[in-house]
UniProtKB/TrEMBL annotation:
<feature type="domain" description="FAD-binding PCMH-type">
    <location>
        <begin position="31"/>
        <end position="212"/>
    </location>
</feature>
<dbReference type="InterPro" id="IPR004113">
    <property type="entry name" value="FAD-bd_oxidored_4_C"/>
</dbReference>
<comment type="similarity">
    <text>Belongs to the FAD-binding oxidoreductase/transferase type 4 family.</text>
</comment>
<dbReference type="InterPro" id="IPR016169">
    <property type="entry name" value="FAD-bd_PCMH_sub2"/>
</dbReference>
<dbReference type="Pfam" id="PF02913">
    <property type="entry name" value="FAD-oxidase_C"/>
</dbReference>
<dbReference type="InterPro" id="IPR016164">
    <property type="entry name" value="FAD-linked_Oxase-like_C"/>
</dbReference>
<dbReference type="InterPro" id="IPR016171">
    <property type="entry name" value="Vanillyl_alc_oxidase_C-sub2"/>
</dbReference>
<dbReference type="InterPro" id="IPR006094">
    <property type="entry name" value="Oxid_FAD_bind_N"/>
</dbReference>
<dbReference type="InterPro" id="IPR016167">
    <property type="entry name" value="FAD-bd_PCMH_sub1"/>
</dbReference>
<dbReference type="InterPro" id="IPR036318">
    <property type="entry name" value="FAD-bd_PCMH-like_sf"/>
</dbReference>
<dbReference type="Pfam" id="PF01565">
    <property type="entry name" value="FAD_binding_4"/>
</dbReference>
<dbReference type="InterPro" id="IPR051264">
    <property type="entry name" value="FAD-oxidored/transferase_4"/>
</dbReference>
<keyword id="KW-0274">FAD</keyword>
<keyword id="KW-0285">Flavoprotein</keyword>
<protein>
    <submittedName>
        <fullName>FAD-binding oxidoreductase</fullName>
    </submittedName>
</protein>
<dbReference type="InterPro" id="IPR016166">
    <property type="entry name" value="FAD-bd_PCMH"/>
</dbReference>
Length: 469
């Protein structure tokens, strides 16, 4: 097996033993697997050849990008049968078309590199998330990643025009069309995006670009309640329209934990507002001028303060201040890691019902598991909450993790009662594969299995993820 793989990608790009280990554990350290080898193909033809070789030998293929996933979707099982295929060497920016506003990149490109390439061409690639310095475009596509600007630009699927995919039989589909209108049958592109490497291996993509904003304004907002932040969001949508590009909500206790752990950071209020129960981070991107952006900002925020909807607002006065505000938000997962493992949820709820969902679920958790600590933050603008449950005072990490299945069921049942989703942007992976049957209808699961069977009849692409067959 190793000799055959070496003949395809070169001996130096077939990793075993200690060299393979970093590819066999997920970012959170929750899942550890085994593999015959890790292969690092350098182009789409080598990817296809690896897949054909593995199919010939009935060997599963698990694809890994930046390994920043949160659901174990890129980690093999512990059978040791699989070959892990790393896209790290598929890292070329193939082309940029500023007239068509598209960029074509390979799956192993780091997200930040794509952002930088777009910016150098005078364009914006708007996908933005905390792991952008290490996650890859292939992983973003595989999980249909969201991030902080979904409110304006949509998830990764909405940013994708075309794909290049290696099928489960080792054929290459070249669908790299930079077309915004292509109504010629089933939308294969949208089928592969979000499939977590279970239907095919995405090797390249043609993505949408946008004009760079002329001016941006960022503010940290303090609220007396989550209900007020939801009400203000409606006002912000009306006042800013499409210029509203980000609206992140954070429980006060969450931000206070960040500044307690990372002493170089601070909540940007000098008064009692620093102890507010809820905060939001708002970003406005204006296409006219800095003066126009500032005027709109001051009008909407000023009116909300006059009406008692906002407790306080801190407007960034420089790029450095704006980055500091975003750094606070992006440090929340790091603070969680410092505080120890928790039971994490990536859920979406209709925005109008988010405050009620949090109140109802918090109460139910305290009744069932007294003392647990709720860590609530997320992308309020698109209804996506990271609703995490951490150990409270006197509780240990082990105790909270021993309750994981019960906590999952309570929270996910609550999500379902509000017509929400148990996975907003992290995917299913292996973490939620056994949860899915509880919240998907039998018909939905049947259709998903039929699609998997049709595109991967031997079940060799990322087995055990997304849907059990």
């Amino acid at each position: 097996m190793l000799e055959g793989l070496s003949n395809i990608v070169g001996q130096s790009n077939v990793l075993t033993g200690s060299a393979a280990q970093p590819y066999l554990v997920d970012w959170r350290g929750r899942y550890r697997g085994k593999a015959q080898a890790v292969v690092r193909p350098g182009n789409v033809e080598e990817v296809a050849a690896v897949v054909r070789y593995c199919v010939l030998n009935n060997v599963p293929v698990v694809t890994v990008g930046g390994n920043t996933g949160l659901c174990g979707g890129a980690t093999p099982d512990d059978s040791g049968r699989a070959v892990v295929l790393s896209t790290a060497r598929l890292n070329k920016i193939r082309s940029i078309d500023t007239d068509n506003d598209t960029i074509t990149v390979e799956a192993g490109c780091i997200l930040q590199s794509v952002q930088d390439a777009a910016r150098e061409a005078g364009r914006l690639f708007p996908l933005s998330l905390a792991a952008e310095g290490s996650c890859t475009i292939g992983g973003n596509l595989a999980t249909n990643a969201g991030g902080t600007q979904v409110l304006r630009y949509g998830n990764t699927r909405e940013l994708t025009l075309g794909l290049e995919v290696v099928t489960a039989e080792g054929e290459i589909w070249n669908g790299l069309r930079g077309l915004r209108k292509d109504n010629t049958g089933y939308d294969l592109r949208d089928l592969f995006v979000g499939s977590e490497g279970t239907l095919g291996i995405i090797t390249a993509a043609t993505l949408k670009l946008y004009p760079l904003p002329v001016a941006q304004r960022t503010a940290m907002l303090a609220f007396a309640s989550l209900e007020d932040s939801v009400t203000f969001l409606s006002r912000a949508r009306q006042g800013f329209g499409a210029a509203l590009t980000g609206f992140e909500v954070m429980a006060g206790s969450v931000l206070q934990a960040v500044v307690r752990l990372f002493t170089d950071q601070r909540i940007p209020f000098e008064n009692e507002s620093a102890n507010s129960p809820w905060f939001a981070l708002l970003e406005l991107s204006d296409s006219e001028s800095a003066e126009h952006a500032q005027a709109r900002f001051e009008h909407v925020l000023g009116q909300a303060i006059e009406d008692g909807l906002l407790l306080d607002a801190a407007i960034a006065q420089s790029v450095a201040q704006s980055k500091a505000f975003w750094h606070l938000r992006e440090s929340i997962p790091l603070a969680e890691a410092e505080l120890g493992k928790s039971v994490k949820h990536d859920v979406s709820i209709p925005i109008s019902q988010i405050a009620e969902f949090v109140a109802v679920t918090n109460k139910a958790l305290q009744a069932e598991f007294p003392g647990v600590h709720n860590v609530v933050f997320g992308h309020l603008g698109d209804g996506n909450l990271h609703y995490n449950v951490a150990p409270g005072a006197g509780q240990t990490e082990g105790e909270i993790l021993s309750l994981q299945s019960q906590i999952y069921q309570l929270v996910h049942d609550s999500v379902a009662s509000f017509n929400g989703s148990i996975s907003a942007e992290h995917g299913i992976g292996q973490l939620k594969v056994n949860e899915l049957p509880r919240y998907k209808s039998e018909l939905e699961l049947k259709l998903m299995r039929q699609i998997k069977q049709a595109l991967d009849p031997k079940g060799l692409l990322n087995p055990g993820k997304v849907v059990n067959v």
